[in-house]
Amino acid sequence: MSENLEQSFVAQLQANQNIIHKICRLYTAGEDAHKDLFQEITIQLWKAYPKFRGDSKFSTWTYRVALNTAITLYRKTKRTISTIEYESHQHFVKDVDYNYEEEEQIKLMYKAVYQLNDIEKALVFMYLEDKDYQEIAETLGISEVNARVKMNRIKGKLKKILNP
Amino acid sequence: MKELDLLKKDWKKNSDSFEQISEKEIYKMIHKKSSSIVKWILIISILEVCFWTFSNLFINTDDLLQKMNHPEIVLAMEILTYFNYVVVLVFIVIFYKNYKTISTTVATKSLMGAILRTRKTVQYYVWYNLGMLVLITILSYFIAFVYNPDMAFFREQLAESGKTMFFTVGILFLIILGILGLFWCIYRLLYGTLLRRLYSNYKELKKIDF
Fold first, then answer.
1. Taking the model in full, what pTM does it have?
2. Residues spanned by CATH 1.10.1740.10 within chain A?
3. Transmembrane stretches, by residue range (chain B) (predicted)?
């Protein structure tokens, strides 16, 4: 592949890398696994890049390939996440209006989200990223109505995990 | 859901808190090899096809056939061999076509479907070979009993005693069962670990989109 293609890909990926980091954060535990998945996603993006026509935004395209890699192609070594790894994995920013109770709740929420399965995580991820249901449905290959129904069910499931 | 809104707030606040990877590192990454399950499926599939195709070539039945001096059996074996070549060719074309449809840019459900279809193609090929193996084993025993002059003594024994007949058929049946069982175990182990997650995610997606 040509030098130019490589250059433009690397520059665009560098600028959009947080999308991949966020997916890695949700689907892996620990630094090594994070890096491993990041690399696999980068490889898959690069492999698909020659067909990227630019009729969609680079970021939109990245979302799809990255999620597909995390859910489908990636060979996970660890299936479950231990509490210790979970704690060390979080990077909480302590700002001025630090609210202990709120922070605790957020921690519990992260923990609850980690207990969801891969598909449920994908829906939550896109929800957190403010994607509309049409895009969520198109990315996963399900109908918009069913994506909404599933998201409501996930909310119920999260509630149950938080208040057993 | 209040907690989810809270999480969203935190998620956004932290969305650029990751240690950034430099362009140089990305350059290095794109030249590394993928370790995705698609790659593993491709490697295993190629090994499987090689194994079955070459194992057919190495089974040498020429001497036995010559000894029996029955040209119609030799002809039947030749036809079977050519039929096998055609099957291999057709299989490779279908496998390649399915493999080409695997793309990370399509919807998750379609991607999973494409991977499973590719995998199924190989599975069918293996079942075909196992079927052929069983068929040929039974046929060769039969031919050996009926036509092989060395077996005349044994044939007489069989005709005389129902017990011997029963044992022979029983052993043959057990051997076939053993071969099938062995392959079934290898397959469960090999693809079980590789595809378990994919199957469960695919099932989950199908459940959502009933």
1. 0.82
2. 1-81
3. 37-59, 79-96, 125-147, 167-190
